[in-house]
Every structure is written in C-alpha cells, then in structure tokens.
C-alpha cells in the first residue's frame, strides 16, 4: 500500500487518491479550451485574465506546493513543474499544475486568490503501469468531440472499477489521469516550455522507469493509441467548458 500525504501527516490510501488539504476535499471543476489570437495590448490583457500567466504567479504557486504538499520521503526532490489541463472521464477540463518529482507525480489545483493549493493528488511512480499518448475518442453515438493530443497515466490496471465510480462525475476512484495542452500553451513565450505536453510525457516516462528499475514486480507500458472518453451527451461539460470554469481567471469584478 502506498502512503499518501495530506493535512501534515501521512495517511494510507490508494495511489492517485486525492490528498486532504486543510480540511478540504478535492472539488471537481470544469473548463474550456479557447484559442487566443488577439495582438498587442489586447493579447496581454487576455493572458492576464488567467491568473497563472501573471508575472511570478506560476513560480510562487510551485514554491507553495513544494512547501505545503511535497514530502521528502514520498516524493524526493522536485524534477520539473508543468502547466497542463486535466481532462476527466466526463470530458471536463481543469487547469492543473503538475509536478514531476523523483518518485511521484503531483497533480495540483492552485487557488491564486487565497495563494494555496486547494486540491492535490499524488500518483507514486512505483504503481504506474501504462502511459499512453494519442487523440481523444468517444463512443459512436456520442455528441461530444475533442481535438488535440492527450497523455493518459494509468495505475492499478487489474483493479475492477465499480459502476458508480465510472458514472459519477465527481469520482476520485478512477485509476488514471489524462492531460492535454493548456489552451494558452503557445500564447506566452515565457511559458511555452512549461506547457509542452510531449516534453512532460518524456520526463515522466524517464522518472517512472528510474523508480521501477529495482522493482522486479513493476513495469511500464508506453503506448501510442487513442484515448477513449466514455461520455455521450455531456451537457454539463459543454456548458462548463464553454465558460472556462475549470481555469483560475478573472471574471468581471471577481475571479476564481
């Protein structure tokens, strides 16, 4: 059993289970993917609507996560930090800061208003068994579509999922996490390298292989194949993605 860390003390749990942070539980939020092509000052203003693109915001968030979430024994040293979008099993997008450490993957939601990590999920490298890269696919009769490339990290592949977990949009029991590029990945030259999905995947694969090298029972498959999302209508996801609700950004006089 892999130990997870939250609320300052280690707790036992399953790999990839959300961590308990200051009495909060992980909240599902939704987002959208929006292309930005406005020039000059308007472009800069559009960027700064996303809190993470404001000067120093990303570095501060990473430092806060290092001090409040990272555990020297469970994680080791930080190797790299990335700005990506998570795509859940109901096709909802959520902005995520993703940290690759020596021994684990940390998937974090950072609250740029309260300056704290409000959600974190630790995936120990020793339990990861598959990393797949490909385009997203949906059931034949699904009304949903999603363009672009994704990377899916899976663990506990032999564990049978309960029906309620697969069809619960807020479930945290699914043994995988899927990422795609942040919608503004190429909009800010200073942030481009932090948003490269393929570079993130390559570093993750290297880290997992290094951790599993001395474990005869562990092993990782690296695949290129379509990434299925078993969602059909997804009305809530469509509304929330269109409204960019999974991204920390200014919304009129308020921001969240």
TrEMBL record:
GO CC terms, sorted: cytoplasm
Record-annotated HSac2 domain positions: 52-236
Name of this chain's protein: HSac2 domain-containing protein
Family: Belongs to the TPRG1 family.
Highest classification ranks of the organism: Eukaryota, Metazoa, Chordata, Craniata, Vertebrata
Superkingdom per UniProt: Eukaryota
